[in-house]
Design the sequence.
């Protein structure tokens, strides 16, 4: 694939949120819709748990611990200025 791939935090109408760890936004939306009714989809700086199948980058740890806060920002910064990875 030539397009930039990313990590996406997806919220659903009918289940708990999760991370799609590959693809463009449209690809992630398509993958997420297999899990439930997609509400919102936002870019994540790093993968986060829970990871939704199909997980492409299993070797990439779920570095982002607060995906609801970090999604859409493009970086991980928590209250107190701490990154999820620190
Ligand atoms: Zn984070």
Sequence:
């Amino acid at each position: 694939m030539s397009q930039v791939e990313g990590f996406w935090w997806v919220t659903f109408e009918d289940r708990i949120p999760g991370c799609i760890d590959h693809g463009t936004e449209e690809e992630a939306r398509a993958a997420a819709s297999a899990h439930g009714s997609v509400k919102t989809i936002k870019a994540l700086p790093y993968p986060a748990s829970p990871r939704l199948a199909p997980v492409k980058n299993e070797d990439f740890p779920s570095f982002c611990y607060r995906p609801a806060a970090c999604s859409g920002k493009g970086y991980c910064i928590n209250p107190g200025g701490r990154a999820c990875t620190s």
Q: What stands out?
A: The radius of gyration is 12 Å. Residues 7-70 form one domain.
